[in-house]
C-alpha cells in the first residue's frame, strides 16, 4: 500500500490555468497573452478599497466591474476603471482567483522588468489585501508562499517583483511593509529571482 500524502500531484493543482485551492470568480477584464509570451514573472501588489478598509467585497466588485462608484468618495477618483489580477489574498489568507494564468490580466499597466516592457503580457499578478507601505499578515505570507510554489509548477517562473519595481515612480506597492525576506526564504528560491533591492545582506 502506498503511503498517504497531503500533496496533490501537479496535474491536480491546475485546470486550464485555474488553481484548485482558490475560490474562482472570473473577471471580464482580461485578454489573450501574445503568442511569444513566456509567463516567468510574478508581480506582487497591495490593494484595499477604500484604502485601509479590509474585509469587504469592494475589490472583488472592482475586478468584476460591479463596484458602486457612489458608495465612497474615494471611488470618484477611480470611476470607470477596468482592472483585474490573477489572484487576491485576503488578510486571513483566503485566496481568490479572477483570471486564468493562461490569460493576460490587467494589473501591471505601463511597466518594464528583465528588459521587457508591458509586464501584463508575461506575468501573473497577485494582489494582497493591504495598505501600500503597511504590514501584512502571517496568513497572507503563508498563502503567497504556497501559491508561488504552485505557480512554479504551472508556469516557468524565474522572477518575482513588486509593482513598485516594475513601475518605479508610478507605483509604490506593496511598499516598505512587505517582508521580501519571508517570501524569499519561504519559497527557497535564489536571490536571483528577486529585485536586488530586496536581497538580504547575506544573500540568503
TrEMBL record:
Protein source organism: Rhodoferax koreensis
Protein's cellular compartments: Cytoplasm
GO molecular function, one term: N-acetylmuramoyl-L-alanine amidase activity
NCBIfam families associated with the record: PRK11789.1 (NF008758)
GO CC annotations on file: cytoplasm
Similarity-based family: Belongs to the N-acetylmuramoyl-L-alanine amidase 2 family.
Primary residence: cytoplasm
EC number: 3.5.1.28
Domain N-acetylmuramoyl-L-alanine amidase: 27-175
Name of the featured protein: 1,6-anhydro-N-acetylmuramyl-L-alanine amidase AmpD
InterPro entries: Amidase/PGRP_sf (IPR036505), Amidase_domain (IPR002502), NAMLAA_amidase_2 (IPR051206)
Keyword terms, alphabetized: Cell wall biogenesis/degradation, Cytoplasm, Hydrolase, Metal-binding, Zinc
Taxonomic lineage: Bacteria, Pseudomonadati, Pseudomonadota, Betaproteobacteria, Burkholderiales
GO biological process per UniProt: cell wall organization; peptidoglycan catabolic process; peptidoglycan turnover
UniProt catalytic activity: Hydrolyzes the link between N-acetylmuramoyl residues and L-amino acid residues in certain cell-wall glycopeptides
Cofactor: Zn(2+)
Amino acid at each position: 500500500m502506498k503511503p498517504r500524502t497531503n500533496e496533490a500531484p501537479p496535474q491536480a493543482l491546475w485546470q486550464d490555468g485555474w488553481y484548485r485551492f482558490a475560490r474562482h470568480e472570473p473577471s471580464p477584464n482580461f485578454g489573450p497573452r501574445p503568442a511569444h509570451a513566456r509567463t516567468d514573472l510574478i508581480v506582487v501588489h497591495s490593494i484595499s478599497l477604500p484604502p485601509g478598509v479590509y474585509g469587504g467585497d469592494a475589490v472583488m466588485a472592482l475586478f468584476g466591474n460591479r463596484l458602486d462608484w457612489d458608495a465612497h468618495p474615494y471611488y470618484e477618483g477611480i470611476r470607470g476603471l477596468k482592472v483585474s489580477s490573477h489572484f487576491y489574498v485576503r488578510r486571513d489568507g483566503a485566496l481568490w482567483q479572477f483570471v486564468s494564468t493562461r490569460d493576460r490580466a490587467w494589473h501591471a499597466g505601463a511597466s518594464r522588468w528583465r528588459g521587457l516592457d508591458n509586464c501584463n503580457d508575461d506575468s501573473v499578478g497577485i494582489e494582497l489585501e493591504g495598505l501600500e507601505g503597511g504590514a501584512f499578515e502571517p496568513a497572507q505570507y503563508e498563502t503567497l508562499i504556497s501559491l508561488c510554489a504552485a505557480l512554479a509548477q504551472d508556469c516557468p517562473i524565474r522572477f518575482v517583483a513588486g509593482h513598485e519595481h516594475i513601475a518605479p515612480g508610478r507605483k509604490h506597492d506593496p511598499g516598505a511593509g512587505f517582508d521580501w525576506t519571508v517570501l524569499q526564504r519561504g519559497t527557497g528560491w535564489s536571490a536571483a529571482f528577486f529585485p536586488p533591492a530586496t536581497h538580504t545582506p547575506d544573500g540568503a
